[in-house]
């Protein structure tokens, strides 16, 4: 069975600093990988996804993630964060053709001025 | 462009009461899902429907029932609400089969059971 581990439950950073949110997955098959963002009191919005091809994936709002098959990781990065990036971020995995999308526990990103 | 619409947005129930959460999508997706979100636990799948007329249990189905009314609508019913069902509930939809990549989410229903 697939599982996702987000290594940090909370990440505080200063505005304009870089940030990395870590995600590791376990699966014996090829996978699709996703990062979703949830702003306060809202639903989940897709930030970016990896299906195949280039291991560096660029998403919305200046975020990017790198798929590393050997380390089974899909870490999310942004070189310079803004106050508006304050949100909870979820990593998720799905096997191609499978129904279930499995989520990690979430990482709460807090941006301090 | 509505996407996935959930009603109601907020609800308070007394223990033992029943209610149905409604979900509709206008993206012509085959697959629909119900998740619950609890602090520190991410999103956990309650039930899903791969296509009209089919439903399957997810990770935490106990205490819930679902109905895939048609291709657009997928409802979640709590027959006898318990405080442990206090949570935020999300409905989602996606394409089917090999085109099934990301899921699209509604805005959520915040349910409190007292």
CATH topology of chain A: Immunoglobulin-like
What would the average pLDDT of chain B be, to the nearest integer? 93
- Strand tally of chain B is 11
- CATH architect. name of chain A: Sandwich
Which oligomerization state do the chains in this entry correspond to? Answer: heterodimer
Q: Name the average pLDDT of chain A.
A: 92
Shape of chain A: globular
Assess the beta-strand content of chain A as a share of residues. over 45%
Integer-rounded radius of gyration of chain B: 13 Å
Distance N terminus to C terminus of chain B?
35 Å
What does this structure look like?
The complex is a heterodimer of chains A (113) and B (114). With 113 residues, chain A is mainly β. Chain A has a single domain (3-112), classed as Immunoglobulin-like. Chain A is 0% helix and 53% strand. Chain A is built from no helices and twelve strands. In chain A, the strands form three sheets. In chain A, strands 2, 5, 6, 10, 11 and 12 form a six-stranded mixed beta sheet that branches. In chain A, strands 3-9-8-7 form a four-stranded antiparallel beta sheet, with no helix packed on it. In chain A, strands 1-4 form a two-stranded antiparallel sheet. In chain A, a hairpin with a 4-residue loop joins strand 8 and strand 9 (73-78). Chain A is globular. With 114 residues, chain B is mainly beta. Chain B is 0% helix and 49% strand. In chain B, strands 2, 4, 5, 6, 9, 10 and 11 form a seven-stranded mixed beta sheet that branches. In chain B, strands 1-3-8-7 form a four-stranded antiparallel beta sheet, with no helix packed on it. Chain B is globular and about 40 Å long. Chains A and B meet through strand 5, strand 6 and strand 11 of A and strand 4, strand 5, strand 9 and strand 10 of B.
